[in-house]
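Researcher: I'm preparing a figure for a lab meeting and need a structural model of a single chain. I don't have an experimental structure, so a prediction will have to do for now. The sequence is pasted below. Please return the structure as tokens so I can convert it later.
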Amino acid sequence: MNKKKIVLFDLDGTLITHDTLKLLVLFLFKRNTFKILFKIPFLVLISFQHFLYKNLDNTHTKSKFLIKLLEGYNKKEIESFSQKFAKYIFLRFKNISVYKKLLKAKKFKSEIYIVTASADFYCKFIAKLLAVKLISTRVNLKKKNLGKIIGKNCYGVEKKKRVLKEIKKFKNKYSIFYTDSSSDISLMKICSESLFV
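Model: Understood. Here is the structure written out token by token.
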């Protein structure tokens, strides 16, 4: 097939072998132990609440988690550690077999997107390293409401809505989607081809 394809990749567990938010917490803990240490009990509690209602989009609980995690940082600091974090996980945790599929898609000049529930403040740097486009959960980095999700968590049905909104004439193009999660079933259904990894 010579037509230009749209190729979509989930991030956590697909392009990256681990959950990137968990990796971010560990990354910050190693760099700023005392800044993160007192936040751990709260983050654990919110994580429990988040996964207790995993079938929902969890915008509220994820916002609470990110607000607490980013507390005490300013926008410049967040941009700085996010850039370093992106390089760190790209070098250590990328899924080589899936990454090869991305490189192959590039070779055929496909339109490539990362579509993820993970936060845009660090995912944009991962997308930049991979030279692909990004659809992700938008997070406020302004002093007021720092860490609060803008709109909805890009999860489940919301992923499908964002893809249809942000990719022009998506339904008229041939699309391939790589994911590791059954939560992506809504997006899988509108793609020409969907593959579990």
